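Working notes for the structural subgroup meeting. M.R. asked for a predicted model of this chain before we commit to crystallization trials. I am recording the input and output together here so anyone reviewing the notebook later can reproduce the run.

Input as submitted:
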Amino acid sequence: MRTLIIVAIGIALSALLLMLFRRNAPTLRAVFATFAVAWVAVCGYNLWLGVTRAGYAVMEELPFFLANAGVPVLFAWWLQRRLQRPLRA
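Returned structure, recorded in token form:
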């Protein structure tokens, strides 16, 4: 359940940030890059908490880290590419 909540927060945050800055393509790329780095850092902290505080092994936490970090970053990449595309008439 925690994984789903973290992924949902990441998707919502990336969509919010990209929609706020959707008018300018270079800014959109910078927002995506900043979000991706920051989100991976947040998920790395979550991984560290799972290993040091909850007592899980790194190999147990690694699939959850990849899901928590990967799904929102891939969604943000997809949305950023979609928002950069010119509208067709």
